[in-house]
Amino acid sequence: MLISELAELTGVSARALRHYEERGLLAPARNSNGYREYAESDVTRVAQIRTMISAGLGTSTIQRYLDCARTGDHGTFLEMCPDLRAELDALARRLDAEQAELRAKRSRLDGLVSPPLR
């Protein structure tokens, strides 16, 4: 299938698909006209990439661990490949720290709009 067809099937822009290719996440074949030709399996691969991005993983991390991605009855999940657990734990710690900072900012904001109790 051509890039426009894959984009329509996955809901991902052609620009994003080209970016995934540049980052080594997709490797479409080329036909005699030079057009990208995607396989049916690329629909699943794009879903895996999107799921990993939405979980906060960057494309360089995804490139290292995309072969660990599996798609089953309940969606995309990652088998714990070597070193993956440590990276996911580090990401979770960063997210926890960001959430704590947001809660602190929210508390300071609330303090600005509410007069102190006497």
Automatic annotation (TrEMBL):
Cytoplasm among keywords: no
Pfam families reported for this sequence: MerR_1
Domain HTH merR-type: 1-68
Keyword GTP-binding included in the entry's annotation: no
UniProtKB keywords: Coiled coil, DNA-binding
Stretches of the chain forming a coiled coil according to its record: 81-108
PANTHER family, sorted: HTH MERR-TYPE DOMAIN-CONTAINING PROTEIN, REDOX-CYCLING DRUG-SENSING TRANSCRIPTIONAL ACTIVATOR SOXR
Full protein name: MerR family transcriptional regulator
UniProt organism field: Streptomyces tamarix
